[in-house]
Amino acid sequence: MEGARVKMLDPPKDTLKSHELTVHGWDPLRTDAILVHGYMGGDGKVPMAVLRDAYRKNGRYNVFVLDWGALAKAPCYTAAVQNLRPVARCLAQLFGSLIHVRGRSDQSICVGHSLGAHVCGLTSNFLGYPLHRILALDPARPLIHSMPGMGKLDAGDAHSVVVLHTNAGFYGESGRIGDVDFCINGGRSQPFCSNSSNEALCSHLRSVCYLAESLDPEKARTAVPCARRCPTGARPGKRPGQPLAMGALTPMG
């Protein structure tokens, strides 16, 4: 499926029929991957466009890209946070339809960057049951705790919640919030971004690139998950523990 676009300004259908999906190349033998961008993002913008292309190249996924860019425009970050719930409510309709068509829920995953990670988490609240898997890419920190009635992403939102932390404590959450949390390069800043004009933002976006790399078997990495939260001091050395595949291939459970 060639990266179907779901635009939040379009009224979602109550139900989808399998023939409506197959005409666009949907394959019931593939896993449905719904990608959700963050603040100031869009379906064709970097870095989510890189991730979309990586999922398509992998060949094992029907790729959907949720475009809620009209509700997440600069400079209105506060408004974008307030829009998380209505966006998640609409996304729950898509998940519900896909699960209804399949007759099972274990072939649909939600992949969210920044605020998009919290959209994935809130979606399960509107469905009334956990999603199969959420891949959360540096879930956004600013204002998430302070907004009244805002339920941030947590491990109960899916049967498997995998989190990649790349800018913990600034743009991204620093505490453990998933079943498996990886604090990449210590979780706070990324070496690739040291010469960037905005090292924090570059590090925040880098989480998307790490997941994209994990979809290529030749570039996939292993890492030891964090037990509690990303470290606040100097970047740690080798962490004790059992390494796991990091990203798309992180095992369930």
UniProtKB/TrEMBL annotation:
Q: Which GO terms describe its molecular function?
A: lipase activity; serine hydrolase activity
InterPro entries from the entry? AB_hydrolase_fold, Lipase, TAG_lipase
Gene3D superfamilies attached to this UniProt entry: alpha/beta hydrolase
Which Pfam families does the UniProt entry name for this protein? Answer: Lipase
Q: Which UniProt keywords apply?
A: Secreted
Positions of the UniProt region annotated as Disordered = 232-253
Q: Taking every annotated instance into account, which residue ranges of this chain make up the domain Lipase?
A: 34-227
The UniProt entry's GO biological process terms, in alphabetical order, are: lipid catabolic process
Any Gene Ontology CC annotation? extracellular space
Q: Which residues cross the membrane?
A: none
Locations listed in the record: Secreted
Chief location of this protein?
A: secreted
The family annotation for this protein states:
Belongs to the AB hydrolase superfamily. Lipase family.
| Name of the protein in its database record | Lipase domain-containing protein
User: What taxonomic ancestry is recorded?
Assistant: Eukaryota, Metazoa, Ecdysozoa, Arthropoda, Hexapoda
